[in-house]
Structures are given as C-alpha cells and as structure tokens.
Amino acid sequence: MVGAGLAGALLATLLARRGWQVDVYEKRGDPRIQGFQGGRSINLALAERGLHALRLAGGDDEVMAQAVMMRGRMVHFLDGRTDLQRYGRDDSEVIWSVHRGELNVILLDIAQQAGARLHFHRGLASVDFDRRSVAFEDDRDGSLHESAFESLVGADGAGSALRSAMNAVSELGERTDFLGHSYKELEIPPTSDGGFSIEPNALHIWPRGRYMCIALPNDERTFTVTLFLPNEGDPAAGVPGFDTVRNGEQARALFERDFADALPLIPRLEHDFEHNPKGLLATLYLDRWHLDDRAVLLGDAAHAMVPFHGQGMNCAFEDCVALAEHLDSGADRAAAFAAFQAQRLPDSRAIQAMALENYLEMRDRVDNDDYLLQRALELR
Ligand code: FAD
C-alpha cells in the first residue's frame, strides 16, 4: 500500500484483520514519533459514512473520545446576528469535528495492532509493473529500497505518485478541474479561562456571497477557521480575492469589513495569514481506477474533491470498506478491483458534484430568507 494517511491506514487495518499480508509505505516520518506534519486542514467533519468504517476497523471509540459534536451550521450574518440551522431533527443526526493528526495516529496504531507492517520515510519512486517490483526513496538520505509486490494500492492522496506511474503504462482518463478559489487556515484560541470562544457544538459559517469563512471546533478548545476566497477578486463588485488580499494587513481590513464578529476572536490573524500556506481546491476525475490485478487507487488518489461537503475523507473511508469486501468476495484480484471501481466510481462522482454545489449553498444561500423558510418547513 502506498500512503499511510487516512485511507491507507484504515484499509491496512481492515485487510490485516482479514488475514492479508499488508506492507504500507509512507513518504513522511512516523507522526507518532515526530508529530503530525499534515500541512492542511487541521480538522475534518466526520459523518456517519466515515464513522461506519471506523466501527468496522475497531477505531471508533478512540476517535470519538476526541471528537466534538456539531449539531448544525451556525450562520453569522453581516450584522452580527447568528442562527443555528440544525442538520437533523435532534442530536441523533449530527456530524463530528475530528483532528486530522490525532485521527491519523489512532489509525496507524490500530493498523499496526492488526498486523500491518508500516514503513516510514518511503516515498514511491518508481514502479516496474511487468516485473512487479517497486522502488521507494528515503527522503533523509536519498537511498532507494526495492520491494516485490503482488498488487499495489494507491492511497497516496491527490498528488498520487502511483497514479502517475499507472498513467504512464495505461491511460486512466485523468482530468483535474481547478475551482479558481483557494483557502487559508487561521486559529481561534481558547478564552483566557480555557473555554471555547464561541458555541462549540456547531460548524460556524460566515457566508458572504462569492466567498466565505468557516470554523470547526477542536477538542483542545480552539477553532480552525478557513477563509475561502476566489483567486482573483472582483473589485468593482466588492469581491475580495487572494490577488488583492495578499498580506496580514489586507486580511485584517477584509475581516473588519466582512467578518467583524470573528476578528476579535483571531488575535494572530496577521501571523496566521502570512505564515500558513494557501491551499488550492480542485476536483480530480479518472475513468479508470485500476490496472488489471496489479494496482488500484482509492481515496483522494482516485477522486479528490473540493471540501465543501466535508465528505472527502468519509468517501475515502467508504472506499476502504468496499475494497476490503470485494477482495473478500472470492473473485480473482482483477475482477475484485473492477467490481470495486464499478461500485465506487459513480458514487464518488455524485459526491464530487454535491461538494461543488455545496460551495454555492454555504457561501450564498444559508443566509437567504427563502432558504431559511424552506429549511424550517423541511424540518417540521
Ligand atoms: P491523504 O490524507 O492525502 O493521505 C495520503 C498519504 O499518502 C499521506 O500520508 C502522504 O504523505 C502519503 N504520500 C503521498 N505521496 C506519497 C508517495 N509518493 N509515497 C508514499 N506516500 C505518499 N474530508 C472530510 O471527510 N471532511 C472534511 O471536513 C474535510 N475537510 C477538508 C478541508 C480541506 C481544506 C481539505 C483540503 C480537505 C478536506 N477533506 C475533508 C478531504 C480529506 O482531507 C481527504 O479526502 C482525505 O485526507 C483523503 O484521504 P487519503 O488517505 O486518500 O489522502
């Protein structure tokens, strides 16, 4: 398996528990030793789809012990009013905010306990599909390490190196659509007495038409704020973009104008804005996810999506369950990979489309009176 991120570690657990021999190669170091170095989206919304997979892997109790419940969207209007829009009728229909680094550490632990062998500092360098031989590079000294394989699983994320290697021998029909919007993460620290600064059990949204901010709670009582802006603003229409909001001072001016109630909550706004990387947003489409019985892709490597439905990880976890079940079916490996693709490719396309639609909904509709009336009627 290539990649010991969220999908790689979960699938390794599911397969090792079924008695498969699994070796997982991860290009980064072990986050349990050197701390998590994710570099993007500090926390994630975990929904029932993902939770179901965690239950099957036996990781749900530990994950839920650090999860923060989000029972709905807390919409922050321009005038400072707020409105909680529940996701369901009651607290049986909620989503959960989980810390990406803590989640990854839990998943690595359970994968190892299940018998998967984890190899860190092993970035995929090259694959010889004819000889079924793969080479990994150690990022510390550049040394190369070869291994034989029966099948490779690509859980190495949106920039998948395995996908590139597969594409080189057989076209996968790859297409990437960039959204034209990017994001920056900022932090709301705890209050001076160690509490949450705003309502903890909600996903906060500051919708502003063509752009927005969101904030998800963390169990250490901080919030991770994500500012989504177009790459190119439209000054004539008063729409900011990352081309006009380029430094901390300009970010402060934007917050003073558009997110005034959030501004006092983010004391290190300038620092965060200038030091945190800008993340790109894109949707990845493939026509094929496998190369006969030799390689298969899943998670972001197969279908990266924009984050507005909070379903990328949840969908990746569903892939893991589906692939483990198809491999168990007794079909030969190539047929199992084909059946997995036939099941999950249309599902992932649907979720990708909903994720794109939800950007419009979150940034432009949740503060709209007609929308609020419709939601109220739906929930009655
Ligand atoms: P990744 O998590 O990217 O893991 C890939 C792993 O492979 C990494 O450990 C990486 O180091 C390793 N790797 C990469 N290249 C190599 C190589 N060459 N060799 C070996 N190893 C390699 N999803 C949700 O469900 N809910 C949310 O709320 C949510 N919010 C998000 C917010 C943002 C801003 C973003 C960007 C994404 C969000 N997502 C969310 C999506 C989610 O992050 C991804 O869908 C999820 O991480 C996919 O898991 P993965 O294991 O496929 O890939």
Automatic annotation (TrEMBL):
Pathway: Cofactor biosynthesis; NAD(+) biosynthesis; quinolinate from L-kynurenine: step 1/3. The keyword Oxidoreductase applies. Its cofactor is FAD. It is an enzyme of class 1 (oxidoreductase). This is Kynurenine 3-monooxygenase. The keyword Nucleotide-binding does not apply. It comes from Montanilutibacter psychrotolerans. Catalyzes the hydroxylation of L-kynurenine (L-Kyn) to form 3-hydroxy-L-kynurenine (L-3OHKyn). Required for synthesis of quinolinic acid. One of its GO terms (molecular function) is kynurenine 3-monooxygenase activity. One of its GO terms (biological process) is anthranilate metabolic process. Keywords: FAD, Flavoprotein, Monooxygenase, NADP, Oxidoreductase, Pyridine nucleotide biosynthesis. Belongs to the aromatic-ring hydroxylase family. KMO subfamily. Residues 2-327 form the FAD-binding domain. The gene is kmo. Its EC number is 1.14.13.9. It catalyses: L-kynurenine + NADPH + O2 + H(+) = 3-hydroxy-L-kynurenine + NADP(+) + H2O.
